[in-house]
């Protein structure tokens, strides 16, 4: 019996399918259909075609990580189908059994192509007539034993691959990278050794390494894949190929959750390549090389999804190789300025204010409501993510770099076309988050429109501030001094003559609604609000909890908000696993309660007597402001990302709120909650400070000055 | 390259003193293409006219991706004809996914688009342009092995023009072009296909200027070329396709048909799905209105689809949806079986594309089958000129549903009323289109033109 797997992205013609299935079954085949279209719409008709089984492939990316979703967005329909199908265990099992893989339409071809690389014994054809012909000629009827007969054993590979690999024909080498072998530690190790052989011809090394790495990834060994590519890269002399292999190694390493081992070498290689190409006058290729280097240097796996960041530890040292790169200097030094200064606010009509963001208006609600009600303001709101063309321009990373190098003018022209009408209308543009839209916006001269940008904290760990032309920004608002310090330490324009005016501006928060009576148990309830990112480091909060419970088991921890999704990244998966392991006994003991996501934070805070900030990195932790305003005693970790600098948590909050470690945190908690009066007094003092410093009733004047009065205080 | 599959000339040839014709005929048997009969007969007739014929085509396996092969077609090839098969293959029709580079697997449509663009860098023909270097090398090698006296290229594909041109440029080997449906005339849309300054236009002009003769399949196309290139008017020769005698059924003893009647279509399914739908709707209407057709059957035979779609595609799906109306799709028919298929049918359906510039090869075979013919094509169509006066033809009315339904009813009545006499009369009407005679005349004309060109004939350039 020959197993045939038909794969269809679109609903096939049923008559032709019925004929072909009949012809295949006449020749003794078992025919299964895996469909990416909705099987249920046509199930009865498809069953009448005679297929022995129908399998529904995933129709979307539900439950998949954002990395995969983003990857899918960049791919065509064929590759998207593969990204969905490869995740389907049952489908992979069907593919393993198949002796003939058949793509029924163009969008299914890539999936068959990929499967065929893993299942070397199976035939792979496009179309039903070729499938019938393959059966007729016996190309597909070789039986299940063929795979075993054609593959070298793992033992052979492990034993003497150094010599064997030179003799193996290409097809056999590819066959030897199938999952069954790569799952075996010896098989994977042998491949790592083989691709790093000193004498291996260059034309073999990269294809071999890529093939082996793909097999290891397929077999669930991303670390092995990364090492394999890294080993091959280190033996590769050609700069382009070496850089490409290093980059592939870095990306292959991401699922492990640790910073990629090849990252530093990859960044250096691409920067070197960029400068070489720039020296050759090839600005387009120089842009491409920098386009590869920057996302690696600022990859979230290094700075966002970790509890430490080399950028935060020493921004000057970390970015030195970038700043030494001439291409980088040319890009980040692009300060084209503006032909005219921003016009003063109009006296005879309302100020036209355009508030712009890119899919994240979390910190804008109060601002928008405030200006929507003001008679002296005409407000417009633009979410770039909702505007197809602008969204595309805002994430056109390569084009932005190419523009800065004057390698292409397309980007400037399109930005003019789509953004100019907004600039012509607005007196002031307020861009929240210093990411792609700022790089896009500053590509063109804003005319007389005043440009105000707010940088929170997250962006400081991305490449985007480097791609903004700050000579076209009038005012840059930071939510905290330590974020400003970090940015000015590595963004050349912010330390140079073209730097805009920089101002600290508290987040807009309506804290008055948090003043509510506490519940009786609140004194012994620590609270952590928001733990969706690794940076919130809830494990630190558990360390604090352990210490206070060692003194008094009445202390408990309330977690408000969903924890990080394990699908976000390998690091998130690892952290979440460790968190769950710690939480399980504590929850059983009643020491930890999870409340999940809530829209009513003021109500949740009535049960919290001590508000924690356990984060490693924050701009200004809004949950702490809200907790303090509610009368909870703030206990703030000295955020490690900023702890070594002049500014940090200690300059954002009153110094006594801030503690260096869990022991000090426990000591502060035990001291201030030891009796009701002391706890209430400390909470009242915190509330008073919060309301007098950060409440909107205080902060709005700063916003008015920045957005309506040309930066002048009244 | 040339050694891939070369049928050696038989021991009695090449004859001393016989001139050497290089016939670049991609689509030569065993390719089961509609043009293959003309190509075969051309080679045979040139052989009969005293030429040693070497045919250049592509490997037979390549046709598996397209219209398939029919080994029975080789039976009718003059054994003196030498066939050289080049290992060329249409990459766009490849269905073995293991042969795909990753870029193609990821975007099959986009890859083919780029492949077509690349092909045009060699020669202005999207699908075949990339064959130019291989063709040129092949004909030069063949000329070196045995000097060529005359090159006859047949289009499509038009890239064969480059082979003739190369031999002319490098060795002054005269050439003729069997243009069949022409190039600068769009026979489907009845208009000019491209202007004189386009890459195609420049190639056509350049090659035709030096051609010894230019064959086309009908008078309107000949007129197009005589008008476009007045200085070539005397070189333009109409060589119609005609029919093969062995494809016509013996009707001498065949009496009137009896219900249930069987109508038939034989040929490539090259008309559009919309045209097929119009025809099938008319058939359904005719079946519901004409008692003679109440339980009639309509058999469709021929190739459908290329590459991954071969044997299938939307037109086959459409045909299958009309099964309740007695429509049956039966796939292709080998050449040797054609006469037998016609013998089982009671009437024929001629669905062809185009208009006044289009004839189709099938119309001659239909005309010679001695059966009633329903015409589903434009009124002003060259097929109408071929069929004019045919005693069992119902006339052309375009694709009007009511008109076609009436034509089906008319054909049904003719089928049940026709005896041997009517059928023989119909065959007699078609006899002037016997392919062997038409191509023999063409071969004689071409040979005579060579004879009238003494400076070139036999004058090999080393």
Radius of gyration of chain A: 30 Å
Mean pLDDT of chain B: 90
**CATH architecture descriptor name of the largest domain in chain B:** 3-Layer(aba) Sandwich
Outline type of chain B: globular
* Radius of gyration of chain B using CA atoms only: 23 Å
CATH superfamily of the largest domain in chain A: Glycogen Phosphorylase B
Strand content of chain A: 5-15%
CATH class term of the largest domain in chain B: Alpha Beta
Q: How many domain units of chain A?
A: 4
Shape of chain A: globular
Q: Class by helix and strand content of chain A?
A: alpha/beta
Q: Spans of chain B with pLDDT under 50 lasting ≥5 residues?
A: 1-15, 456-462
Secondary structure tally: strands of chain B: 16
Level-2 CATH architecture of the largest domain in chain A? 3-Layer(aba) Sandwich
For the largest beta-sheet of chain B, the strand count, sense and barrel status come to:
8 strands, mixed
Instruction: Count up the helices of chain A.
Output: 38
Beta-strand residue fraction of chain B: 15-25%
Could you give me the name of the CATH homologous superfamily of the largest domain in chain B? Answer: Glycogen Phosphorylase B
Pfam families (chain A): Glyco_trans_1_4 (PF13692)
Protein name (chain A): D-inositol 3-phosphate glycosyltransferase
What's the helix and strand layout?
The complex is a heterodimer of chains A (714) and B (462).
Chain A: E1 2-8, H1 14-26, E2 29-35, H2 39-47, E3 53-56, H3 66-74, H4 77-85, H5 89-97, E4 100-103, H6 106-118, E5 123-126, H7 128-137, H8 145-150, H9 154-167, H10 170-175, H11 179-182, H12 185-195, H13 202-218, H14 222-234, H15 239-253, H16 263-279, H17 283-297, H18 300-303, H19 310-313, H20 315-318, H21 320-323, H22 326-332, E6 351-357, H23 365-372, E7 377-383, H24 388-394, H25 397-404, H26 410-425, E8 428-432, H27 436-441, E9 450-455, H28 464-467, E10 475-478, H29 481-490, E11 501-504, E12 525-531, H30 538-551, E13 556-563, H31 570-588, E14 592-596, H32 601-605, E15 610-613, H33 622-629, E16 633-637, H34 640-643, H35 649-652, E17 658-659, H36 662-672, H37 676-693, H38 696-707
Parallel strand pairs in A: 1-2, 1-4, 2-3, 4-5, 6-7, 6-8, 8-9, 9-10, 10-11, 12-13, 12-15, 13-14, 15-16, 16-17
Chain B: E1 5-7, E2 19-24, H1 36-48, E3 51-58, H2 60-63, E4 82-86, H3 102-106, H4 108-122, H5 132-145, E5 150-154, H6 160-171, E6 175-180, E7 185-186, E8 191-192, H7 199-210, E9 213-216, H8 219-228, E10 236-238, E11 262-266, H9 273-289, E12 297-301, H10 314-321, E13 327-329, H11 338-344, E14 347-351, H12 362-367, E15 373-376, H13 382-387, E16 393-396, H14 401-417, H15 420-430, H16 435-451
Parallel strand pairs in B: 2-3, 2-5, 3-4, 5-6, 6-9, 9-10, 11-12, 11-14, 12-13, 14-15, 15-16
Antiparallel strand pairs in B: 1-4, 7-8
Helix pairs in contact in B: 1-16, 5-6, 9-10, 9-14
């Amino acid at each position: 019996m020959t197993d045939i797997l038909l794969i269809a992205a679109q609903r096939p013609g049923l008559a032709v399918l019925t004929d072909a299935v009949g012809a295949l079954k006449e020749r003794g085949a078992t025919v299964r259909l895996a469909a990416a279209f909705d099987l249920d719409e046509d199930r009865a008709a498809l069953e009448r075609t005679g297929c022995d089984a129908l399998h529904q492939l995933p129709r979307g990316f539900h439950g998949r990580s954002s990395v995969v979703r983003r990857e899918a967005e960049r791919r065509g329909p064929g590759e998207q189908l593969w990204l969905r199908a490869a995740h389907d265990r049952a489908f992979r099992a069907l593919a393993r059994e198949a002796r003939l893989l058949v793509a029924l339409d163009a969008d299914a071809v890539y999936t068959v192509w990929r499967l065929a690389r893993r299942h070397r014994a199976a035939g792979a054809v496009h179309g039903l007539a070729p499938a019938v012909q393959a059966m007729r000629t016996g190309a597909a009827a070789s039986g299940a034993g063929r795979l075993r007969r054609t593959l070298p054993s793992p033992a052979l590979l492990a034993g003497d691959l150094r010599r064997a690999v030179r003799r193996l024909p290409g097809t056999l080498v590819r066959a030897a990278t199938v999952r069954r072998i790569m799952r075996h530690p010896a098989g994977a190790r042998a491949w790592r050794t083989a691709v790093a052989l000193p004498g291996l011809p260059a034309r073999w090394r990269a294809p071999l390494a890529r093939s082996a790495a793909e097999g290891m990834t397929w077999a669930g060994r991303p670390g092995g894949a990364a090492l394999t590519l890294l080993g091959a890269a280190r033996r590769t002399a050609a700069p382009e190929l070496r850089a490409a292999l290093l980059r592939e190694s870095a990306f292959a390493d991401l699922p492990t959750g640790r910073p990629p081992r090849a990252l530093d070498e990859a960044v250096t290689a691409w920067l070197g390549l960029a400068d070489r190409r720039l020296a050759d006058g090839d600005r387009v290729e120089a842009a491409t090389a920098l386009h590869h280097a920057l996302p690696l240097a600022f990859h979230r796996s290094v700075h966002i999804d970790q509890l430490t960041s080399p950028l935060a530890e020493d921004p000057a040292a970390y970015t030195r190789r970038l700043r030494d790169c001439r291409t980088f200097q040319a890009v980040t030094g692009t300060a084209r300025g503006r032909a005219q200064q921003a016009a003063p606010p109009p006296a005879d009509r309302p100020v036209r204010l355009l508030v712009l963001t890119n899919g994240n208006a979390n910190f804008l609600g109060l601002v928008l409501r405030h200006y929507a009600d003001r008679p002296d303001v005409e407000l417009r709101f633009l979410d770039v993510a909702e505007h197809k063309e602008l969204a595309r321009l805002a994430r056109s990373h390569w084009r932005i770099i190419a523009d800065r190098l004057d390698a292409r003018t397309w980007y400037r022209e399109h930005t003019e076309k789509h953004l100019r009408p907004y600039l012509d209308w607005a007196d002031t543009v307020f861009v929240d988050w210093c990411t792609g839209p700022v790089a896009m916006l500053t590509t063109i001269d804003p005319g007389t429109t005043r440009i105000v940008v707010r940088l929170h904290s997250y962006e400081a760990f991305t490449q985007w501030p480097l791609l903004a032309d700050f000579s076209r920004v009038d005012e840059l608002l930071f939510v905290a001094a330590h974020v400003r310090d970090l940015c000015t330490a590595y963004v050349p324009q912010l330390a140079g003559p073209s730097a805009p005016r920089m101002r600290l501006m508290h987040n807009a928060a309506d804290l008055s609604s948090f003043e509510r009576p506490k519940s009786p148990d609140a004194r012994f309830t620590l609270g952590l609000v928001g733990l969706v990112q690794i940076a919130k480091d809830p494990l630190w909060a558990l360390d604090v909890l352990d210490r206070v419970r060692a003194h008094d088991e009445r202390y408990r921890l309330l977690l408000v908000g969903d924890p990080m999704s394990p699908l976000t990244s390998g690091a998130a998966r690892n952290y979440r696993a460790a968190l769950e392991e710690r939480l399980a006994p504590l929850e059983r003991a009643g020491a930890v309660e999870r409340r999940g996501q809530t829209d009513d934070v003021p109500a949740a805070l009535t049960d919290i007597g001590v508000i924690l900030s356990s984060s490693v990195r924050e701009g200004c932790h809004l949950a702490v402001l809200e907790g303090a305003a509610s009368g909870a005693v703030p206990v703030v970790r000295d955020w490690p990302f900023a702890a070594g600098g002049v500014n940090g948590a200690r300059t954002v909050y009153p110094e006594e709120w801030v503690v260096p470690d869990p022991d000090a945190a426990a000591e502060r908690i035990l001291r201030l909650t030891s009796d009701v009066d002391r706890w209430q007094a400390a909470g009242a003092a915190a509330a008073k400070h919060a309301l007098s410093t950060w409440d909107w009733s205080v902060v709005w004047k700063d916003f008015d000055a920045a957005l309506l009065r040309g930066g002048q205080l009244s | 390259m040339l050694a891939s599959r070369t049928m050696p000339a038989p021991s009695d040839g090449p004859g001393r003193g016989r001139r050497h014709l290089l016939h670049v005929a991609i689509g030569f048997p065993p390719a089961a293409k509609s043009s293959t009969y003309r190509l075969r007969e051309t080679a045979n007739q040139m052989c009969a006219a005293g030429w040693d014929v070497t045919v250049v085509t592509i490997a037979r396996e390549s046709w598996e991706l397209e219209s398939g092969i029919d080994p029975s077609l080789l039976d009718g090839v003059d054994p003196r004809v030498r066939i050289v098969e080049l290992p060329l293959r249409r990459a766009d029709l490849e269905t073995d996914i293991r042969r795909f580079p990753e870029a193609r697997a990821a975007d099959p449509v986009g890859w083919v688009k780029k492949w077509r663009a690349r092909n045009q860098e060699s020669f202005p023909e999207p699908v075949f342009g990339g064959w130019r270097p291989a063709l040129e090398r092949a004909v030069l090698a063949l000329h070196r092995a045995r000097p060529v006296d005359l090159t006859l290229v047949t289009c499509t594909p038009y890239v064969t023009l480059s082979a003739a041109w190369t031999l002319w440029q490098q060795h002054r080997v005269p050439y003729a072009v069997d243009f069949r449906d022409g190039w600068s005339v769009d026979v489907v849309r009845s208009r000019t296909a491209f202007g004189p300054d386009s890459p195609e236009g420049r190639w056509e002009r350049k090659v035709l200027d030096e051609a010894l003769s230019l064959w086309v399949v009908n008078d309107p196309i000949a007129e197009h070329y005589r008008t476009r290139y007045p200085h070539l008017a005397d070189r333009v020769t109409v060589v119609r396709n005609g029919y093969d005698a062995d494809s016509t059924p013996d009707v001498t003893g065949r009496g009137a048909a009896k219900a249930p009647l069987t109508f038939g279509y034989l040929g490539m399914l090259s008309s559009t799905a919309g045209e097929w739908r119009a025809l099938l709707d008319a058939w359904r209407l005719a079946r519901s209105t004409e008692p003679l057709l109440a339980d009639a059957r309509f058999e469709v035979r021929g190739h459908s689809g290329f590459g991954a779609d071969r044997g299938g595609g939307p037109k086959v799906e459409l045909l299958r949806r009309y099964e309740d109306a007695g429509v049956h799709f039966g796939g292709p028919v080998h050449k040797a079986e054609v006469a037998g298929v016609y013998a089982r049918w009671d009437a024929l359906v001629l669905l062809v594309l185009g208009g006044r510039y289009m004839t189709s090869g099938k119309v001659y075979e239909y005309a010679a089958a001695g059966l009633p013919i329903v015409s589903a094509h434009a009124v002003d169509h060259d097929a109408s000129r071929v069929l004019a006066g045919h005693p069992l033809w119902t006339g052309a009315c375009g694709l009007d549903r009511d008109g076609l339904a009436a034509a089906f009813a008319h054909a049904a009545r003719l089928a049940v009323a026709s005896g041997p006499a009517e059928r023989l009369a119909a065959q007699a009407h078609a006899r002037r289109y016997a392919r062997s005679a038409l191509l023999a005349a063409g071969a004689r004309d071409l040979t005579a033109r060579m004879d009238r060109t003494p400076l070139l004939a036999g004058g090999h350039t080393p």
